[in-house]
C-alpha cells in the first residue's frame, strides 16, 4: 500500500501528461493488489505465487540470454545455471499450482536470489582476471 501511495504522490512531481498518467496507473495497481492481499490473504498468496512464477520464467530466459552473450567469460556458466534452475523451479511450481502456493514464494525468491547473486559475483571476478 505504501508503494501505491508513494507512486500517487510522485505522479504530481512528474513532467508531462504521459508520465503523470503512468505513475497514477502504477499507484492504483499497487493499491488494488495490496487491498486484494489484505481482504483475501489465501487467494492473494496463490495469485502472488503465480505472478512470481511467471516473473522467474522471464528472468530465467533473460539469464540464458546473458549467458549466450557472455559465454566466453569464465564466470558466465553461472548465468546458465541460474537460468536453467529458474526455469526448472518455475516449471515445478507452475505444474503443482495452486497447492505449491504454501511453499513456493520463499523457494522462488530464495533460490533465484542465491543464484543471481553468485552469477553477479563471479562475472566481475572474471572480468578482473581478463584485465590483469
Offer a quick outline of the entry:
With 132 residues, the chain is an all-alpha fold. It has helices at residues 2-11, 17-39, 41-70, 77-95, 101-131.
Would you kindly provide a written description of the structure presented here, covering whatever features stand out?
The chain has 132 residues and is mainly alpha-helical. The chain has 2 domains: 1-39, no CATH class; 41-131. It has 5 helices and no strands. It is flat. The mean pLDDT is 81.
Determine the number of helices (DSSP H or I, runs of at least 4 residues): 5
- Reading the helices and strands in chain order gives HHHHH
Mean pLDDT: 81
What share of the residues lie within helices? over 70%
Q: How many β-strand runs? A: 0
Sum up the structure in keywords.
2 domains, 132 residues, 86% helix, 5 helices, mainly alpha, single chain, flat
Write the layout of secondary structure elements.
Elements: H1 2-11, H2 17-39, H3 41-70, H4 77-95, H5 101-131
Amino acid at each position: 500500500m505504501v508503494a501505491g501511495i508513494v507512486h500517487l504522490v510522485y505522479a504530481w512531481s512528474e513532467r508531462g501528461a504521459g508520465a503523470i498518467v503512468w505513475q497514477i496507473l502504477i499507484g492504483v495497481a499497487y493499491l488494488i493488489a495490496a487491498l486484494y492481499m489484505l481482504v483475501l490473504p489465501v487467494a492473494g498468496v496463490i495469485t502472488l505465487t503465480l505472478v512470481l512464477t511467471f516473473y522467474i520464467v522471464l528472468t530465467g530466459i533473460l539469464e540464458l540470454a546473458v549467458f549466450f552473450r557472455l559465454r566466453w567469460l569464465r564466470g558466465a556458466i553461472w548465468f546458465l545455471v541460474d537460468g536453467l534452475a529458474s526455469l526448472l523451479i518455475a516449471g515445478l511450481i507452475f505444474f503443482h499450482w495452486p497447492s505449491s502456493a504454501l511453499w513456493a514464494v520463499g523457494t522462488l525468491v530464495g533460490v533465484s536470489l542465491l543464484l543471481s547473486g553468485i552469477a553477479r559475483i563471479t562475472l566481475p571476478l572474471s572480468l578482473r582476471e581478463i584485465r590483469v
